[in-house]
Every structure is written in structure tokens, then in C-alpha cells.
Write a structure and sequence with these properties.
Layout lengths: L4 E3 L3 E6 L5 H5 L2 E3 L3 E10 L8 E9 L11 E9 L7 E7 L6 E8 L20 E6 L13 E2 L2 E14 L6 E13 L14
Parallel strand pairs: 3-9
Antiparallel strand pairs: 1-4, 2-4, 4-7, 5-6, 5-8, 8-9, 10-11, 11-12
Length: 199
């Protein structure tokens, strides 16, 4: 008989600052400058009581290939986990500072110091990360637009932009084509084509 400590995938909720729409917040899309609360559980699913341990919040910022909470950087402070009986759990929450435009991932790892002999030593961290997208805050005359998506994911790839400049007196002009890269771009982007002022 032995304990077995696991951590849940965290959830997020708005705390203060600018807001996106309620539907966007359900999709973990928050406005620039918003503070959010992330919440996660540590549970003992083993067959014996677990002693006092420590759990660590983990996170990443920006575009990254990392997908496992165990590989994310540790976030202070470390959480003190009380002794947990069989099938017992404890919930932790922490508030972030106002978030800048970017993408974030959060997770949690139970028994972060690896001091508990468990039935399974490979399941201490969140099974999937909490993914957060931070988009520009709404202006005074509109709401924050949702990020462009393909199959529900932020746009990642190249798009072709085409335009034509002419003198306004005929149908003749010069056509321009551009290829623009928007890797993992979480925000709505607008483009325009115009001649220089000196033309």
C-alpha cells in the first residue's frame, strides 16, 4: 500500500482589469492588463495516506514547443501540501499580476521534491496544461475581437495579401502581392496598402 499524488489541470478566471467577452473568458482568452486567478487541486488517489509534501506551480510564456507541465519553469511560491488521506484533495489558487499581450501555459506538480514513495511516480503533474491567450483590451467604441482561428487554434502560418495602386483615371496600375507570416498570432491584425506621401 502506498499513496499516489496527482495534480489537476488548472482552471482560470478573471479577477480584475480589462475584460474580453464572457464567451472568450470561457475559452481562456483574456484582455491585456487583466489579472486572473488560476486554481488547481492536489489529490491522493493511492491506497495509503500521504505525508506532508510540496507542490509547485509551473508555467511558460510565449510560443514554445513545451506541452508538459513537468517541463515548464517553476513559479514561486511553492505550495505547502498538508498530509492527505486516501481519496482526499486540497485546492490551491493564485492570482497573476496584470498580463501582457502573449500566450501562457500553466500547470501544477504534486510532490515536486519527489520525496514520497508512490504507487505511480509518473503522474504527479497536470495531465494537460492550462493555455491562456492575452489579446488587446477593448477600445472605447467596441469589444475585443476574438483571435483568428483555424480549427479552434490560434492562426499559425502564411497568408497572401494582394493589392493594386492606380492613378484613379484609368484601369491601369501596379499590382502587389505579399506573403506575411503570422506564427501563433493570437490577435486580430489589419493591413493596408497605400503609396508613399512623396509619390
Amino acid at each position: 500500500m502506498a499513496p499516489d499524488l496527482i495534480a489537476s489541470t488548472p482552471t482560470a478566471e478573471w479577477v480584475s482589469g480589462p475584460r474580453t467577452t464572457s464567451e472568450q473568458e470561457k475559452q481562456n482568452i483574456f484582455a491585456e492588463g487583466a489579472a486572473i486567478r488560476i486554481t488547481g487541486d492536489v489529490q491522493n488517489i493511492g491506497t495509503a495516506d500521504a505525508p506532508k509534501t510540496k507542490a509547485a506551480w509551473r508555467g511558460t510564456k510565449g510560443v514554445t514547443s513545451l506541452t508538459k507541465a513537468a517541463d515548464f519553469g517553476k513559479l514561486d511560491p511553492i505550495e505547502e501540501v498538508a498530509a492527505l488521506g486516501v481519496k482526499k484533495s486540497i485546492t490551491f489558487s493564485r492570482d497573476t499580476p496584470p498580463l501582457p499581450l502573449d500566450q501562457f501555459q500553466f500547470g501544477m506538480c504534486a510532490d515536486d521534491e519527489g520525496k514520497v514513495n508512490e504507487l505511480d511516480e509518473t503522474n504527479n503533474c497536470s495531465p494537460a496544461p492550462l493555455k491562456i491567450a492575452v489579446v488587446p483590451a477593448a477600445g472605447p467604441t467596441g469589444t475585443t475581437p476574438p483571435p483568428p482561428t483555424t480549427s479552434g487554434k490560434p492562426w499559425d502560418g502564411w497568408i497572401k495579401l494582394s493589392g493594386k495602386i492606380k492613378d484613379g483615371k484609368s484601369d491601369y496600375g501596379v499590382r502587389y502581392d505579399f506573403m506575411v507570416s503570422l506564427p501563433n498570432h493570437p490577435n486580430t491584425t489589419r493591413f493596408c496598402l497605400r503609396p508613399s506621401q512623396g509619390a
